[in-house]
Amino acid sequence: MIDTLLSGPDRKEALSRVYVKALAACAGCATSVPEPDRDSVDLRIHGGGLLRPALDLQLKATTNIAEPRDGLLPFRLSIKNYRDLSEDTQTPRLLVVLELPTNERLWMTVQSEELVLRRRAYWLSLQWDHDEVVGQESITVYIPERNVLDVEVLQDLMERSRTGGI
Fold it and tell me: What is the pLDDT of residues 12-39, one digit of tens each?
């Protein structure tokens, strides 16, 4: 095996970025990376047409997503990310959590006719979630299990960004 430059968390982050970039490409959207990342925005998605909609995303990836409780997936998020994502902003901000298999060898496979990135990503808007958090380093947020991010959902979120409906 070769020596790697990327740690496990680095590889997870890269896969979450690839997942969303692939969805954006299929949806006909462009992506960009804000530099420097000081505002909990890892990736921006840009759309065309009227008002040029956009989404700002905080990307996370995990191999141990918790079991859903009453249709909600609990996820621990740093207080900084929570505060940044819950601010009122003109461009909607979303948390995107990519679920990966526990076995790293199953994260992605390449065969002659397909490239498979396993599991799925979920999205959550915290824009109006203004819970007071004092003295904590992280907070549990609850992602609806139905909030699977796919091409159709991304197109819908972009349209909702255009109309102010997220």
Answer: 999 999 999 999 999 999 999 999 888 9
